[in-house]
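Minutes, project check-in
Item: structure for the 349-residue chain
Input as provided by the requester:
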Amino acid sequence: MRAVKASSRISFAAPIALVVGLAIVALWPLADRLLARRQNERRLRALAEKAELPGTSRCARLSATRTLPPVRQEAPLASWGSIGGCGAGGGAASSPGGGITWVGRNVTGGLLDTQCLASETFARGNAYSTFLTRLNVSPAQRWGVALYMPVLYKVGDVTVLGQTKTARIAGFGDVSLEASRKLGISGQHRLALIASTPTGAYDAVRQGIVLPQHLQLGSGVLGATGHYQYTRDRDWGLMLLGGTISYGGWQNGMGDRRAPSATAYTHAGYVLGPLVPSGGLTLFGKPFHDRERHADKPDDHDPLLLVIPSLGVEWASDYLALYLAGNLGLSYNGVESMTLGLGISSSLF
């Protein structure tokens, strides 16, 4: 009951906080341009006053109005094209809106690129903790191979002989393998295929009953996801546009099946020195409901459409990047979930 009350309080306050945050992120480019314009006007006035000083030669005035670009004092970070999509893994499949996308410079370029993302999702009285590790290597300049290894901890209420009890389960989720390819002159287009393996338990028993589908660690069957992403550089930062098509697999031995689904998303990130604040919006949909124990889930527990606003901020150095983000899963039934995540990225060897 405490988890339900806490979730209801969070559900009330979180939409207001997200709306305010999205408004700040949306207005930041305008404020940034106005500030830059004022700074440029001050510099031009100062140069004009210097050029009009008596006794100054024409050659000196011309040289005063010409400025050289600043010299970079430190090594550049990874390009926008190397941004990774480190999702919430198994937690995302079990709770609407659970996935988190990394938006920022990131750190790549070594023999082994590592991302670790810890996230917590609250969804209708249930809590899902995910620790996802992504290991990526690049056998060629535009090719990438990545391994996703999620560790999950799930808590939720179950009914046992008419009584409500709390069930807990922890362990490895479904491990996934990704192959990706960058296209375009600057690698702005990225295609990826992700195959998931049934390594997580799908028939675990707690409190004397087989746990419902949303509390299981895995799906019990193979799955596949196709991913496309387009990265567009802007003078103030970047924009991401993309989408996914997922096949959750056939019906497993417990009579559970996850419906195929698709997403479309857009994210914008703004460069503020080492910080990159970002905001995004994801649309999620599926043609029919998931199946549990040979029966379709009810619409009030399994919405077919979701709108997922998100906010994040990244801090990056040459060798280490940190990412803090959160999102809300909203449907026609109201607030479905809230997710908070903290990630760390490094390039080894």
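Outcome recorded: Helices lie at 2-51, 58-65, 90-94.
No further action items on this chain.
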